[in-house]
Structure prediction request, 225 residues.
Amino acid sequence: MDTKKLNMVSLGPGDIDLITIKALKALKSSDAICVPTKSKDHSFQKSLTHKIVTKLMKEHNFQKPIIAVYTPMHFHQEDWQYQVDVLYKGFKQYNSLSFVTLGDSAIYSTVYYLLDIIKEQEPKLYEKSEVIAGVTSFSQASAKVKKPLCLGDSRFEIVPLLDKEVPVTTVYMRPKIGMDTDILKERGKIYTFENMNYQEESITTSKIVKVKKYMTLFIDFFQKD
Ligand SMILES: C[S@@+](CC[C@H](N)C(=O)[O-])C[C@H]1O[C@@H](n2cnc3c(N)ncnc32)[C@H](O)[C@@H]1O
Prediction:
């Protein structure tokens, strides 16, 4: 697996013009595209991801072999393992694969169940893998009705509609320069992101002590059990 490349590609919320250029480049440069389907017979009649991928190939004039990944959504470890095995099998034939997901991979996506397994079983493949961010369904929903998700002093929550307490991820934004981060009480694991994608980008796997730059955000990631 040393020379293999796996892209976890966010497709955006269903409008093919809302895929990122980076995601499109990843699809175009992959040897094959792994597309989830909930159909046991591996057909794509009901697969939204397949519709997006085929539309993208048509619109942007490229063709790639498609590998069906049966995704039953029962949240069983053996189902995630099955999907990872489909990727491993794909790598027997191809050097680079893209696995696609709807919206953004950070939001309730299969991607991280698969990456957790790959990290354990094929650490080199995990190291070389790349997750490509996308537009979420709720960013698109907000844009459609021209209503912000948060503005001024408001905050924004994502709540899964489940009948139980759930672990929380919190994103902290708009800090003041010079601010002491003592007030951020760590519930999971805090990372600090400064000047991301700009000069002097820094990603720290802890909470920095004092805010130095306006372009700083903190994420207190929920802890998996
Ligand atoms: C498994 S989550 C995936 C979310 C996705 N990764 C994202 O970034 O939006 C699926 C949920 O996202 C929401 N969702 C995704 N696409 C949507 C759409 N086109 N219209 C309305 N809700 C959508 C629904 O609440 C749905 O139950």
About this structure: The chain has two domains: 5-138, 170-221.
